Amino acid sequence: MLTCKCGSKLEWEDTSDVEGGILEGYIIEQQLWTCPNCQAEYFVQARVNFTKDNIEIDQVLENI
Predict the structure, then answer these.
(1) Which of 29, 26, 22, 33 is nearest to 45 (CA)?
(2) pLDDT at 64
(3) DSSP assignment of 6-60
(4) What strand order describes the sheet that includes 11-21?
(5) Do residues 11 and 36 lie in contact, with contact meaning Cβ atoms separated by under 8 Å?
(6) Most-buried pick from 22, 26, 42, 59 (CB within 10 A)?
């Protein structure tokens, strides 16, 4: 949970950029979060690392 300097919970607004992917073993997102209390904006870089052992196929949508 992300919190503002004023102590309020931040709300996710948008993801502006994504790099990497499952095949690269990571995803990095540039995100915008705002505080509903004081209207402060925070730019957050979030990174997720993957290994072949923790990737699960949820569903196959189409056969091409």
Answers:
(1) 29
(2) 67
(3) TSPBPEEEEEEEEEEETTTTEEEEEEEEE-TTT--EEEEEEEEE--GGG------
(4) 11-21, 26-34, 41-49
(5) yes
(6) 42
pLDDT in tens, the chain (64 residues): 899 999 999 999 999 999 999 888 999 999 999 999 999 999 999 999 988 787 777 888 887 6
Phi, psi of 52 (to 5 degrees): -60, -20
Contact 20, 12 (CB under 8 A): no
Distance of CA 7 to the CA centre of its chain: 21
Q: What is the structure's pLDDT at 52?
A: 75
In terms of Cα–Cα distance, which of 33, 34, 28 is closest to 48? 28
What pLDDT was estimated at residue 57? 77
